Amino acid sequence: MSEPSELLTPERIFRDHAPRIFHLARRMLGSESDAEDVLQEVLLTVIRKLKDFRGDSSLTTWLHRVTVNTALMHRRKQASRELRERSDPMEQFSDEGIHTQPIHGWANAPDQPLLQAERRSLLEQAITRMPEILRDVLILADIEELPNAEVADVLQLSVPAVKTRLHRARQWLRNELAPHFEEPSR
């Protein structure tokens, strides 16, 4: 059920939804300053796209989708920027030949950070491909760790519908990721 368009002003959306947008972005990005950047981007997007909002989904769902997409885009840009910044290996050393950054421990296998990044990328790609009807519930319940009752309230669903969609989303994700984690046949 969507709100009448005359009630949808950028000011009202900011007042009513900015804390939730910020909270979701902070959970996804792990940084308050990045979450503030995403909040600003989302609000600018809302100002630009509000006239195009048709009300096919609830405003909360639309804002959630815009926030998740903006946060993922922010994360990709940040990873790309960090990769460019680390492109010169000699910058890791001072003129005296001492490391300028702390050296990571050798307790983990050297390929672990790469494998972890690859797993995270596979998971993000799978979530992006997931049908929206399942994705919204999965992100709110499993990433934001909201209780089912709150997820139901945000998405305007019943609690049993949230549980069903969450179960289906987890199954969908398991099926999507299984080929990447199965042991090769001998």
TrEMBL record:
Residues 122-173 form the RNA polymerase sigma factor 70 region 4 type domain. Belongs to the sigma-70 factor family. ECF subfamily. CDD domains: Sigma70_r4. It comes from Tuwongella immobilis. Keywords: DNA-binding, Sigma factor, Transcription, Transcription regulation. This is RNA polymerase sigma factor. Residues 14-80 form the RNA polymerase sigma-70 region domain. It comes from the Bacteria. One of its GO terms (biological process) is DNA-templated transcription initiation. The keyword Chloroplast does not apply. GO terms for molecular function: DNA binding; sigma factor activity. PROSITE patterns: SIGMA70_ECF. It holds the Pfam family Sigma70_r2. SUPFAM superfamilies: Sigma2 domain of RNA polymerase sigma factors (SSF88946), Sigma3 and sigma4 domains of RNA polymerase sigma factors (SSF88659). InterPro entries: RNA_pol_sigma-70-like, RNA_pol_sigma-70_dom, RNA_pol_sigma70_ECF_CS, RNA_pol_sigma70_r2, RNA_pol_sigma70_r4_t2, RNA_pol_sigma_r2, RNA_pol_sigma_r3/r4-like, WH-like_DNA-bd_sf. The keyword Flavoprotein does not apply.
